[in-house]
Amino acid sequence: MKAFGDRPVAKVTTRDVSLFLRELDAEGFTPRNVNKYRQVLQAMFTSTCRANTFNLQANPVEKTDKRREPSPAALDYYEVAAPPAGH
C-alpha cells in the first residue's frame, strides 16, 4: 500500500513496480521473498486487466525481472535400518 496505494491503478507503470522490487532488494529481502511480492502483485494486476474490473490494457508486473533463486538444498532422508540377520 505504501508503494502504490496513493495513485490510481491505471497510473502504475512497469518502472514503478521495478523500482519497488529493487527497494526490497536494497532492504535485504531474499530473492525468494522479492519473487513472492512480485507474484502477489502479478495476481492483483491480472485481475485489474479484466473487463469487469478496471479493464487495464496491460499488466505492469509482467515485464519486470524475476530474481534468481538458489537451487533448493538436497533433502536429507533416513531409512529404517534392516534388522540384523538371524533375528
Features:
87 residues, mainly alpha
Give a verbal description of the structure:
This protein is mainly alpha-helical. It has a domain at 14-68. Helices cover 36% and strands 0% of the residues. It is built from 2 helices and no strands. Helix 1 (14-26) runs antiparallel to helix 2.
Write the layout of secondary structure elements.
Layout (H helix, E strand, L loop, with lengths): L13 H13 L4 H18 L39
User: How many strands?
Assistant: 0
H and E order: HH
Low-pLDDT runs:
none
Structural class call reads mainly alpha
Q: How far from one another are the termini?
A: 66 Å
Mean pLDDT: 92
Note the beta-strand portion.
under 5%
Instruction: Report on the biggest sheet.
Output: none
Overall shape = elongated
Helix amount, in percent?
Answer: 25-40%
Radius of gyration: 22 Å
- What's the total helix number? 2
What's this entry about, in short?
By secondary structure, the protein is an all-alpha fold. The protein has helices at residues 14-26, 31-48.
